[in-house]
Structures are given as C-alpha cells and as structure tokens.
Amino acid sequence: MNINSVTEFLTEMKVKEKTGNEVSVDYTYKEILLSVTTPLMSIKVDTKKKDDNASDMDKLIGNMLDCFIGKPIQVTLLQDGSVQSVSGYDAIMSEVQKILSSANAIQKQMANTFMQSFTEDGVKSSFEQMFRIYPDKEIKNGESWKIDLSLSLGAMSSKVNNTYTLKSVSNDVALLDIASIMSSDSGINGEQKGEMKLNLKTGLPVQSKTEGTAKGKMTVQGIETTMDMTIQTTTTLQ
C-alpha cells in the first residue's frame, strides 16, 4: 500500500523555570498541517486555512486539532534531555473528546489513528528525539556515541538506537551525523540517516534533517497490509 503522509508543525517553546537539573518549558502548537493520501482515503487539514468545502472527516480532524492551537503544554526536561513529565493535556483532550463524541464509529477509528502524534506520549517522544542527544563524556571530532530511546505512539511501542558522530565544529556550532535503527512491537522496522546542527553556547539543536525507510505489516481498518514507507524529517529551532 502506498501512503503519502506530510505533517508540519509550527510550535513555540518558552523556558519558564530552571531548578537543579530540571528545566520547565511551555510548549504551544501555533499551526498544524496534516496531509495523508492512501488508496483508501485522503485527508488534508490546515489549522490556519479553513475550507468550507472540506469533507466531514477533514472537518472533524480539523476541529480536533484546533483544540491544541494556542494552549500551552508544560514539559519538564532533565539534564540529559529526557522528559520527566508532561502536563496540561487533560483540558485539551477533554475538548477533543467532546468533538469526537458526535462522530460515528468509523470516523472515531480514523480520527484516533491520525491523532496519535498529538497524545501526551507523542509529545514526550518528540521532545526526547529532539533533546536526548547528548554524550556523557567529552567528544572529539570523528568520535561517536549511542543513545537508545523507548518511544510510544498510540498503541505502538518502538525502540530507536541512535548513533551520533561529531563531524566538525565551527563558530560554536557542532555538526553531527545521525544514524538510527528502529524496531517496533507492531512489526514495522526501519532506519534513517541525517545531520544535526547543535549550538554549543545554548546546548540546543538548531536544525536536523533525516531521511529513512520503514517496512512491515500493519492492520488498517481491519485489513492487513504491507507498508513500505520513505520518511523525511526536518526540524528547525529559532
């Protein structure tokens, strides 16, 4: 099955407090674009552009995503970049469930699939992929270190084995090579490679670009299908 999926976020992060080895951040979605095309369906939602002619399914998902716009989610990070806690989701999900309550059974199943990236676990996974990247010792050019992550996305759990290599340092910016191998309990496995730029003054990643593939079998609307995906990800922090 061919699947073309594009998800774009414009988010804002504000550091609210630093105590000991913890940093508290307000994380706010400003804009969300979601586009998915498969042989079975087509979904396109853009929270900044309303389409009066959109399908009922597009309108349902659009209304659900609107619940996230402009509402801060509190994330607490530890010194190694791992996530200590996520809060502020209960009120948002209460609004989402009110909207979802009017949908039929098929719409609910489809909507829940698309909303997996916007769960509390989804936000936690996104933060750890962005910030849990640091070595536990001083690194020289050409040296590598490994970070293993356990991530959850909806009902699927996966393990990601990341290898980072310091490629160069120039003007307080470190250039890293990234190589990742993913395995999941759903049987979808893959790998990706790319680069990341890390600001050495702030310790924050300023840009990362990765490209990879994933293959496996999964059940979509009761039908088992073989998945063969190409995944491209670009993240920029300003």
Q: What does this 3D model show about the protein?
A:
The strands form 2 sheets. The chain has a 6-stranded antiparallel sheet, with helices on one face. Strands 1, 2, 3, 4 and 5 form a 5-stranded antiparallel sheet that branches. The protein starts with a strand and ends with a strand. It has helices at residues 56-66, 89-100, 105-114, 120-131, and strands at 4-19, 22-37, 42-46, 73-78, 83-87, 144-153, 156-170, 173-184, 189-199, 205-220, 223-236. Helix 1 runs antiparallel to helix 2. It has 2 domains: 1-125, no CATH class; 133-238. It contains 4 helices and 11 strands, in the order E-E-E-H-E-E-H-H-H-E-E-E-E-E-E. It is globular and about 55 Å long.
